[in-house]
Amino acid sequence: MQLRNQVEWALHCCAVLAGLPEGARLSTRVLAEFHGVPKDYLSKALQNLAQAGLIEGSLGPSGGYRLGRPAAEISFLDVVEAVEGAGRSFACTEIRCNSPCLAEDHKPRGPCQIARVMWQADAAWRRELQAVTLSELVATLAQELPADQLTAAAEWMAERAGR
Amino acid sequence: MQLRNQVEWALHCCAVLAGLPEGARLSTRVLAEFHGVPKDYLSKALQNLAQAGLIEGSLGPSGGYRLGRPAAEISFLDVVEAVEGAGRSFACTEIRCNSPCLAEDHKPRGPCQIARVMWQADAAWRRELQAVTLSELVATLAQELPADQLTAAAEWMAERAGR
Ligand code: FES
Ligand code: FES
């Protein structure tokens, strides 16, 4: 079970957008260059984020993306689900109903015990991702990354940001 | 992010094998018939379980599979990892190192903050799956399934089991 690479890209783009000064925007081209990833594939991931309302795009020469709502209101789960979809990682196809020992009109009561365990684990995964917001991520980055690295990145962005 | 259908099949096969009387074995054909799934695809999943030591096969006309160790020592996680592999669901490709603002010889300290959150969530998922064993599953099934259904299944198996 493997998440797409675009999840890593989308989370990093959101972290960058969450750290921008008020009103600033970054284009797909700039985000692709900063992260060293192919612009066309990144573009698809950014569209997913925009469709989910997590980021907001504007057209024109100084256009680009900014967050669609406050960073404190966007969780890791929001970003992951925007890119991967919100479906559970385990799909039960009800194979328990295929048993040759069951009556023709057999209807199982409630979900399968096996599916329940698998869905509990899925819920635990989502809970962890829901518990961390982009604003917490930005705070951790500000604490842990070397100051000169943060300054260099902020300057690089400022030179390329639209408004 | 979606697990293979074989995970559902493998878990159900393990539940059946965990419920067999001491010494009994079931062939791939019988397990496929009971679950109504294609024998050839199931065969691959059973081979994965055998490679992981969770089940143990024997050849010959009365051959088949039985558990490779006590049901209390096999967790959902063991079964899922045997079929899906034990790799983390999130792979970090270190895109943070692609930034044009970094010095040529930049070496990041420790794993990326984003990867850490994703791996914590992955660990929470695995913890849940590790916490439930096949013997707990069999106990729940025995409690929750109608008695006549359990008896019918046990008789159907007994007629087809090898030793
Ligand atoms: S029938 Fe789908 S998990 Fe049991
Ligand atoms: S560099 Fe891979 S998740 Fe941040």
TrEMBL record, chains A, B:
Residues making up the signal peptide according to the UniProt record: none
UniProt cross-references to NCBIfam families, sorted A to Z: rrf2_super
Top-level taxon in the UniProt lineage: Bacteria
PROSITE patterns with a match to the protein in the record: HTH_RRF2_2
Protein name: RrF2 family transcriptional regulator
